[in-house]
Specification:
With about 170 residues, this protein is α/β, with parallel strands linked by helices. The chain has a single domain, classed as 3-Layer(aba) Sandwich (Glutaredoxin). The protein is built from five helices and eight strands. The strands form two sheets. Strands 1-8-7-4-5-6 form a six-stranded mixed beta sheet. Strands 2-3 form a two-stranded antiparallel ribbon. Strand 5, helix 3 and strand 6 form a beta-alpha-beta unit. The longest helix has 23 residues. It is globular. The N terminus is likely disordered.
Length: about 170
């Protein structure tokens, strides 16, 4: 009986250690969904009318990022996304930015100053944003190659810092 208790305690400690090491490998604020959820449809045009469909990125990791120019954390975060995108090796991950129902002129002016190298899809009527139901802005969803939401980050992040860059680079091995 004593050996069984020791064995049970050892298994429990090993499980707790394994779970904490998995959680520790995620940067602050990134949450793993268990089980992963199917990604909602996403098909929108950018300001030039070029349509992007999430289905076009099947087989790749995709970072879907919902934002708005009136959102303070979004305003602080967008320059870090711009720098992050510049540091990534092509085809590491596809960044898909979705502006939540703002006027095109406002978005154009804001992006020109805050993140001039980024493009954004325009959710003009808010239907896609409503379907994805982000819990506030900014919200980021990491879609795995099978089309499932695997990770979520709510609120602003410094995406160009080492913990987030390492996480994004590591996705191809997950």
């Amino acid at each position: 009986m004593k050996n069984f208790r020791l064995f049970s305690a050892a298994v429990l400690l090993a499980c707790l250690w394994a779970n904490s090491s998995i959680a520790a490998s995620l940067p602050k604020g990134v949450i793993e969904l268990s089980p992963p959820a199917p990604a909602r449809p996403l098909k929108l045009a950018n300001m030039d009318g070029q349509v992007t469909d999430l289905k076009d990125y099947a087989g790749r990791w995709v970072m879907v990022h919902f934002w708005a120019g009136w959102c303070g954390p979004c305003r602080r975060e967008l320059p870090t996304l711009d720098r992050m995108a510049a540091q990534l090796v092509p085809n590491t991950i596809q960044l898909v930015m979705v502006n939540a129902a703002e006027k095109e002129d406002d978005v154009f002016i804001f992006l020109g100053g805050a993140a001039p190298n980024l493009d954004t899809l325009m959710d003009r009527d808010g239907v896609v944003t409503n379907a994805w139901q982000p819990r506030g802005l900014p919200s980021t969803f990491f879609i795995d190659p099978g089309g499932r939401v695997r990770y979520v980050a709510l609120g602003g992040r410094e995406w160009d810092t080492a913990p987030y860059m390492d996480f994004i680079r590591s996705l191809s091995s997950r």
